[in-house]
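Hi support team,

I'm filing this because I wasn't sure whether my run with iron/sulfur cluster finished correctly. The job status page said complete, but I'd like someone to confirm that the output block is well-formed before I use it downstream. Pasting the exact inputs I used:
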Amino acid sequence: QCAAVCPTGALVENDATWDVVKALGDPEKTVIVQTAPSVRAALGEEFGLEPGTLVTGKMVAALRGLGFDKVFDTDFGADLTIMEEASEFLDRLTRHLDGDTSVKLPILTSCCPAWVNFFEHNFSDLLDVPSTSKSPMQMFSAVVKNVYAQELGVDRKNLVVVSVMPCLAKKYEASRDEFSIGNDYDTDIVLSTRELAKLIKQYNIEFNLLKDEEFDNPLGESTGASIIFGRTGGVIEAALRTAADWYTKEDLQDIDYTQVRGFEGVRSADVKIGDLELKIGIAHGLGEARKLLEEVRAGKSAYHAIEIMACKGGCIGGGGQPYHHGNTAILKKRTEALKTEDESKKIRKSHENPYIIKLYKEYFGEPLSHRSHELLHTKYFKKHKI
Ligand code: SF4
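And here is everything the job wrote out:
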């Protein structure tokens, strides 16, 4: 399964559970954990629960039981990613519509590290096409190490950020040099969903008997938009919810962009926001992505924006999730779980997350500001063809 989804070279699952145990046992360290959106929709399967059982509250309780000092949510990072990515999209789109021929469209989402590695190797002539926004995991970790550390009064060297991810390629992403200061990486340890389950079992925590608990704040606050990052079409739908409000300057109520949802490997959706008629492409699976990228390379792409995720179904089908053996019914149940969580949220647009608003007011100023470019954006590198 991993070889099918991890063209990054992260083909072997390096078990990081012992690194977490050591960090939790070190009295000098403050250990913070963040959990990706799709983990809560699949972790329960490792404890005999039906696929599609949402275990958000039990997962938080288990992490607290393991001894993490703060239990936060990568979804907060996803909301932050949307702030930057939707801004980039609108900036490029409006300049393009104003006749600026230097602007590249479509914009490509860039939160999947397997996909980033794929285009660095195979489409290195298109490095200026993807969004430069970091992934939710890396934005979250950058904020923790550079902003939250100051609030806590803890030296970043004594802060350990552990990420629980559906993904083996996230281990590789965390180790990229651009996400570190010397040997001090923003994300210290990445656990897969399966590794978290293993740790919970090793600590003899009766997962199914746990009472639901809430994430810590402020970095545990998130919106429905961030939850749907976990499934194919979700990143672009989340971006549309924000871009549409900003473009129309309205608080739009019709925010379910069902056109971008679905399971076909490549999908095309027409979306109208205000007077704009947008064409959105969605691909899951790198073979499918290649088709869309060949069109971009040939200058024949009709799309304004394209979402690409390496795994079938998006992150709910990631290589670090409980094994699904290619069973699409399981992936669809996990997708439904994320839909339920999205619809249950009072706030479903990233730019309305109160803690995100506060973070911009107190630290970043505006999206795409100098400070956000420093902490929340990245660059890509030309690599040999594979
Ligand atoms: Fe990882 Fe998600 Fe990309 Fe799969 S789709 S490689 S789980 S980020």
